[in-house]
Write a structure and sequence with these properties.
The structure holds two protein chains of two kinds. Chain A contains three helices and four strands. Chain A is of the alpha+beta class. Chain A has a single domain, classed as HPr-like (Histidine-containing Protein, Chain: A), CATH 3.30.1340. In chain A, strands 1-4-2-3 form a four-stranded antiparallel beta sheet. By secondary structure, chain B is mainly β. Chain B is 9% helix and 40% strand. In chain B, the strands form three sheets. Chain B has an eight-stranded antiparallel beta sheet with strand order 9-5-6-7-11-3-2-13, with no helix packed on it. In chain B, strands 1-14-12 form a three-stranded antiparallel beta sheet, with no helix packed on it. In chain B, β6 and β7 form a beta hairpin. Classes of the chains: A alpha+beta, B mainly beta. The interface between A and B is medium-sized, with 14 and 20 residues.
Chain lengths: 85, 161
Amino acid sequence: MKTFTYVITDPLGLHARPAGLLVKAAAGYSSAVTVATDAGKADAKRIMAVMRLAAKQGMTLTVTCDGADEEAAAAGLLEFMKNNL
Amino acid sequence: MGFFSSLFGKSGDVICAPVAGKAVPISQVSDPTFGEEILGKGVAIIPSDGKIVAPCDATVDMMFDTGHAVSLVADFGAEILVHIGLDTVNLKGEHFTVHAKSGEKVTRGQLLMEVDLEAVKAKGYDVITPVVICNSGEYSTFKTQVDKTVAAGDEIIRLAK
């Protein structure tokens, strides 16, 4: 299992577009991926669950990747967040 | 349902237009998040009215506090996102009035939110409203009704597993 945290810098937070792109990025890995805030946890491969987090600028996301390609998933998703959130 | 209803193409579950306007293929949406179906398959509506209603009996999954988008889970299981206009998250709620809240049970045609279309257009935003089925991959039948004028409540998508 591989975990990292990321603080959202995008002033608009995790709205529909970045949520969709995140799901697409997570779906590229076989590992189970979850995204969590202080308020809740979501399967990063389910768009509705990710949007329901209503994650805003300044909030910390904890991303957990669990599976055969967890190293690559964690590295890839951290890069994704730096570029999109 | 049953043999005769499926024979006449009336089987399956129905998603209705959440707003009056012109229904068009979602590929016509310039934002690739929608146009390339990253969030799922759907239909887009070029709205002629600012009243956005529930597209079927459903539970509001998440009403964005900015009022520019809402996700719902239909009683029959479809996960629906209605996104009013493109990049309208930037308006931070201005020109949108919210009439339903997350977790609320709604019936088809119930008012969810209102938008001042002219004000949003005047600020340079495209008001095209994608209606996306986020779990469209779970359905083997996905029939859309596009390139026509619709009233809120008219069928736009029929789906079956």
